[in-house]
Amino acid sequence: MKDSETVSPRKGTVVDSIVQNLADDIVSGQLAPGTKLDAQTMAERFGVSRTPIRETFGHLAAMGLVTHRPNRGVVVATLSPEALSDLYEAMAELEASLARLAALRMNSHQRETLERLHNESIHLVRDGTSDEYDQFNRTFHALIFEAARSPQLQQLAETTRTRLAPFRRAQFRLNNRLSKSWEEHDAIVRAILTGDAEGVARLMRAHVQTVSAMSAEFIAEHQPRPVAASSPDLAYQGADG
Amino acid sequence: MKDSETVSPRKGTVVDSIVQNLADDIVSGQLAPGTKLDAQTMAERFGVSRTPIRETFGHLAAMGLVTHRPNRGVVVATLSPEALSDLYEAMAELEASLARLAALRMNSHQRETLERLHNESIHLVRDGTSDEYDQFNRTFHALIFEAARSPQLQQLAETTRTRLAPFRRAQFRLNNRLSKSWEEHDAIVRAILTGDAEGVARLMRAHVQTVSAMSAEFIAEHQPRPVAASSPDLAYQGADG
DNA sequence: AACGAAAAAAGTGCATGCACAATTGTGGTT
DNA sequence: AACCACAATTGTGCATGCACTTTTTTCGTT
């Protein structure tokens, strides 16, 4: 254990960099849902006092990454199956809206880039790893977000995506999910290129909802106890191993 | 000026009630966009120390109601015309999504309530005040939010609505905007009752965007200096008086 | 009188201390 | 041995103090 991981002496406030740090830990799964975070410990870990840590917790709570219980500290956010599918629904709607706007506003250069990158991604389906495809997948969606030119919607979508991240691990590990995903992307790209705004919204909504179903299925299959009585909330179900 | 406005001694943390207080002041326009909020003063006003005030500021910043400049305090959020129309666009998309889901999921009791309240609201168009119609308008949209059964999307829509509130004042003061609004509502209600999900999404999007245009127009017309060089951001333009 | 530099004032950001709430541990009672 | 009350411990929530940054005021120079 290194003492006090020197919270980069850059500009801005100390708080922001600690927020980044902890958010990454949560999103990446290093801090599993349900983990209790206590101010004292974090203060020592980052070599600051408890005051900025408390502020950090506030930021994380605002992002929905942790839950704050008055007088009882904060824990990494846990989601009930209902809450998870609700979040996915929101994600699907947001991405559908962004895709629709992208179809209407994308310029020719952006269209070319999207088409080219998508076509290249076919290699990843056969030869790439899940992680590589996952990375391309993020790029694919980011291109569409960008093209929609709707910063506020984009922001909401990205926040929602971040909240889902701890529960999306290894989404592409399921049987031939990669090729299914590619085909869905393909339909989306074609709809964008032909300017079919309503169509692309429908396709994107379905695409995200498929991912949602996969996530739920994956988690269900990897439950320690298949159908137990008392585990309403999802803690991290271990995937990347 | 009463000293220390006894921040209701209820349960929960002190911070939450102060957040409510200040959020209300901002949303209602008591604290105009651009107003600087300093911790010291607020601490005295609410009879607490600066620490919980700082936390309060964090919450308000997370909601987008204030802007935080490191080492330079917080000010009530100000929006450039572009940012304002961007926010309205997001609002339009969110409400369109919610309306679409509502059309698919509304039960018969909810349909009856919506239709009844909408029909009754015709009186307000002729006999009511702007404020009364504004209040009904909120109810109308809330009914649809509720019926969509999509808590996360609903939350995003409500947060966005709150952020827009300081800039929406007196939106119904413009010529016959009331009857126009009622007609738009009418089309929306009919689409919901016939289960035309895609149609209601389109109508709702247009409805919110009309409000957006009205807002922009109203602000433009009430600008102190019609076309000046240097006022990129909108402070509160005084309406309710 | 206008301008600029330096000093003073004001205000933020973080550390630390204390009071109180929640949790855990212990011992007594049935 | 199981259960409950009470004490000890842990940890949160807020107050206060100090250092440093930003802003304002003052004062000397042109």
List low-confidence stretches of chain A.
6-11, 223-232, 236-241
Give the tally of β-strands of chain A.
Answer: 3
The first-to-last residue Cα distance of chain A is 23 Å
The CATH class name of the largest domain in chain A reads Mainly Alpha
Say what oligomer this is. homodimer
Number of individual domains of chain A: 2
Q: Would you list the SSEs of chain A in sequence order as H and E?
A: HEHHEEHHHHHHH
**Helical segment tally of chain A?**
10
Can you give the helix content of chain A as a percent range? 55-70%
The greatest interface between two protein chains, and residues involved on each side, is:
A-B, 27 and 27 residues
Q: What is the radius of gyration of chain A?
A: 20 Å
Mean pLDDT of chain A: 85
Which architecture of the largest domain in chain A does the CATH hierarchy give at level 2? Answer: Up-down Bundle
Kindly report the CATH topology of the largest domain in chain A: Four Helix Bundle (Hemerythrin (Met), subunit A)
CATH superfamily of the largest domain in chain A: GntR ligand-binding domain-like
> What can be said about the biggest beta sheet of chain A?
3 strands, antiparallel
* Overall 3D shape of chain A: elongated
Overview of this structure, please?
The structure is a homodimer of 241-residue chains. The radius of gyration of chain A is 20 Å and the shape is elongated. The longest helix of chain A is centred in the middle third of the chain and has 25 residues, at 81-105. Chain A is 64% helix and 3% strand. The first copy, chain A, is built from 10 helices and 3 strands. The first copy, chain A, has 2 domains: 14-76, Arc Repressor Mutant, subunit A (Orthogonal Bundle); 81-221, GntR ligand-binding domain-like (Four Helix Bundle (Hemerythrin (Met), subunit A)), CATH 1.20.120. Chain A is mostly helical. Chain A has a 3-stranded antiparallel sheet with strand order 1-3-2. At the A-B interface, helix 3, helix 4 and helix 8 of A face helix 3, helix 4 and helix 8 of B.
